[in-house]
């Protein structure tokens, strides 16, 4: 079916309108504000690069950027390490479509809970007297409780948990397109399970892994509620800087930090897309 | 065609294997023996259980009953990577992320052979399938025929005792298919490897194989040399599936030396005795169209008059449809320049040498089907 020009624009109009109103316009306002100045609790509408200069000459900015990237890399790696085996098991071990659908629903269920509620749940689980520490001590794995709250580990655990479904499904869908006779051919040529996995399954499902990494990386980079509530002020990332500046009505500083965040995300997307293009098709 | 393949005794023994998929019985108590160095084909229509049988031999499926022995060793549940077999898959299953070289090298890499030896053997294998110089290509840059050759090289480079081929030529167009048939036969003869091929194309099975097993609905009906199964099909299914056949139902009237007289409608036809026929029994006479003689058939012991209903010219042959009472016959007569052509409606004498016609049971399945060499 071919859709004609006018009809196409008609169909796209509502979405384009919403994008313009709630994305392009605010971004524009943001962009303009980044060229203003904030002095003595007021925004001074002059045109200057001073706010940029302040941001890029302040060592604290680089600590924040570093923290953001570090968090994104750790969370992305962990999420993929946990999600890949889950996707693989779903693909190879679960044959019945009904069971698959039920498991998929279960995997997505964390997303049905509000981020704030879920974060408070983690507060309870990860506290010094929380379930995780109690169990670890009961199992005599540790003697003194681990500090899992208001620091990096807490944020990492919580973000990894919530990003799992976003990582599992792209990988699972690529695995579904994998020609299973390729695995049989590898077995036929003498490969055991491990060789088949490393030479055939993993390389041919890399597009799914990279797609998952792209999603997790950008989501981690822009995560706000979790670092705010579970970071206890110790996990200073870009979205927090944006938020803090904005509540102080320092829009110019918030705008600069926000644009830096945007540029980092775009760079990450472009880098991972370049990787995808080099990968073999399934 | 080489019926005198070097015999090295039983290389593959398939003993009464049965394989079910849920309610579907894909293979029903199939037994046969493949000799060393033989080109063996499993032939049958789509869905008859050929692939399943091949996969049981290769270790990709495990039989519910029965067992497979290769080179005298029972295979039990040995996985494919530890069987002395290699498979050429129906859809080839070449690794898309590897070059031609790496595809062919895969099996040798799994054996952790030294790089030097891998290089040499891959080169030899590519030469064997007449593909030298394309080692660096990507799989997607190859034609269908070239991919076919890579798949063959990838299997043969491992020097398997038994090469399994699942419809190896089905993806190729007719001309290339005929060329590859010859080439497979040449490879098999040169290497002396036991080939087990699966096909739904009778022409392909007859052209390439030393022996053919004919399957239908999970049952192995007959195993024999191509000429043997063509000349002496054991039942209606085999007769019909391999080449054209006139199948004439009738009642046994009596025997005379080596031949049997069978009354079909108003006509008595004669066939070679089978040994199991009894007087008064209803059975079927099978005679191939090219064995029927027309016109000059009057002196045959088995001649009757028929009327030409139709004819068609096919280049080397003229095919006639004859009616002799209620019996309809197809006859194929070689077309020679100037030979008399019978016209529609013409009365002709038709007949055949009784020793050229065989008896088969009237029902589709033969009694005691299950085969054996
Ligand atoms: N993995 C499977 N699951 C269920 N049924 C199968 C499976 N493989 C084969 N079958 C069934 O077994 C029968 C024989 O199949 P197959 O051996 O592939 O036939 P062929 O190769 O002769 O076309 C068919 O009815 C097919 O549907
Ligand atoms: Mg098949």
Task: Detail the topology: elements first, then pairings.
The complex is a heterodimer of chains A (282) and B (373).
Chain A: H1 5-33, E1 37-39, E2 42-44, H2 50-57, H3 59-93, H4 97-108, H5 115-126, H6 131-138, H7 152-176, H8 180-188, H9 193-221, H10 225-230, H11 238-247, H12 251-278
Antiparallel strand pairs in A: 1-2
Helix pairs in contact in A: 3-7, 3-9, 7-9, 8-9, 9-12, 11-12
Chain B: E1 10-21, E2 24-35, E3 39-43, H1 50-58, E4 65-70, E5 73-74, E6 85-88, H2 100-110, H3 115-128, H4 144-156, E7 162-166, H5 174-191, E8 194-199, H6 202-208, E9 211-216, E10 219-224, H7 226-231, H8 236-241, E11 246-256, E12 259-264, E13 267-272, E14 282-287, E15 293-294, E16 303-313, E17 317-324, E18 327-334, E19 347-351, E20 358-360
Parallel strand pairs in B: 3-8, 3-9, 6-7, 7-8
Antiparallel strand pairs in B: 1-2, 1-4, 4-5, 9-10, 11-12, 11-14, 12-13, 14-20, 15-19, 16-17, 16-19, 17-18
The site of adenosine-5'-diphosphate has 11 residues of chain B, from strand 2 and helix 1.
Q: Explain this structure to me?
A:
The radius of gyration of chain A is 23 Å and the shape is globular. Chain A has a two-stranded antiparallel ribbon with strand order 1-2. Chain A has a single domain, classed as MetI-like (MetI-like fold, Orthogonal Bundle). Chain A is mostly helical and 282 residues long. Chain A is built from twelve helices and two strands. Helices cover 75% and strands 2% of the residues of chain A. In chain A, a hairpin with a 2-residue loop joins strand 1 and strand 2. The mean pLDDT of chain A is 89. With 373 residues, chain B is of the alpha+beta class. Chain B has two domains: 227 residues, 3-Layer(aba) Sandwich (Rossmann fold); 117 residues, RNA polymerase II/Efflux pump adaptor protein, barrel-sandwich hybrid domain (OB fold (Dihydrolipoamide Acetyltransferase, E2P)), CATH 2.40.50.100. Chain B contains eight helices and 20 strands. In chain B, the strands form four sheets. A six-stranded mixed sheet of chain B has the order 6-7-8-3-9-10, with helices on both faces. Chain B has a five-stranded antiparallel sheet with strand order 13-12-11-14-20. In chain B, strand 17 and strand 18 form a beta hairpin. Chain B is elongated and about 75 Å long. The N terminus and C terminus of chain B are likely disordered. The interface between A and B is medium-sized, with 20 and 22 residues.
